[in-house]
Amino acid sequence: MLPVIQPPSDGFTPFEKLFLRETFLNLYKKIREPITKFIIIAYFECGYSQDEIAYILGISQPIVVKIIKKEQIVLRKLKSREQL
Q1: What pTM, to 2 d.p., does this model score?
Q2: How many Cβ atoms from other residues are within 10 Å of residue 19's Cβ?
């Protein structure tokens, strides 16, 4: 029998995790560029660093940072719109 591994506590309640997940999925559906989708999933869901993503895609790390920051702004706007 395999041992049960508990994920580390991140301080979010199950409801908050569900809300964040839904918000993230709504943002993901609105992204049209495949490279942007890859960057968002690799960074936020898979935990790759910006340097690793840049290396995988063959682009500079500042471009990765720019894309992540742009999408974070969109996510904040989407989140604030849902709270209204």
Answers
A1: 0.66
A2: 14
